[in-house]
Specification:
alpha/beta; 7-stranded mixed β-sheet; about 325 residues; FAD/NAD(P)-binding domain; Ferredoxin-NADP_redctase_2; oxidoreductase; 5-stranded parallel β-sheet
Length: about 325
Amino acid sequence: MNLYRGMEFNLRSVSTEAKERDFDVIIIGAGAAGFSAAVYASRSGLSAVILDKNVAGGLTAEAPLVENYLGFKSIVGSDLAKNFAEHASEYASIREGVEVKSVKKGDGGFIVDTSDGEYHSKYIIITTGTTHKHLGVKGEAEYFGKGVSYCSTCDGYLFKNKNVVTIGGGNSGAIAAISMSEYVKNATIVEYMPRYMCENAYIEEIKKRKIPYIMNAQVTEIVGDGKKVTGVKYKDRSSGEEKTLPADGVFVYVGLIPQTSFLKDSGVKLDERGYIIVDGRQRTNVPGIYAAGDVTSGSFAQIASAVGDGCKAALSLYSDTISSKK
């Protein structure tokens, strides 16, 4: 299964031979925060590039529907991400499929080691966001791409008129189940906690659509026939009883983890969960390195707040460069 199916944005590309390697600012992560940072950095007169190991869009592109971003009553996440990417590409080069391996201090700035070679910059803005947490149960890895997915927007339609189970009943899991209920045979939500874990608006929609929401359930295994998923085993945490739900597709929404492993040797301070610690102006503890969006400690993990953080990071960076020249 292609996690990013249908999300090619036709952004301008640069041939390997002609690629510039030196910039005022390198933005790591092509999501909402990164796009915003690129626009504001460029408009401040700074040369900028956005690097991302995947395709542009971030988690915004995976949202089945976005209903809380100002200016759009309702918009498909991939469409909003496309708008962001096309706008940002007018200001900065967006280089997809470039994985950042490390960030280190160099002469007059930073050296960014990537799968595409070394890049150099005076400043860094980290906007790598988060990625999906895995359950860690038997069958999850074995059946990834054979029924197990972390993106209903990408893979949901593969299960039209079939049975799907969403593991995790928070907002993301609820939205996924609600969206897929339009075309699957049955959509069921399995939640570890003994109560609804999503917002009231989603609870009402779940009840309206009669989507089963199984609470107090611990998933123990994703089962299959060796070629594809056939079901989900879980334990009723109240009775201890083991049960199995038939499933053709399993969508895992059990939380997110920050994408910060490449910062190991950078000196950037992280909190106990691995998120980047920043001050009120998006500065990290390392002069010249800023961070914005969901990857930062205390983030609200919203598209709107990520866009604001990206703007703030770029403007703070520019302000700091002006101050340092006085």
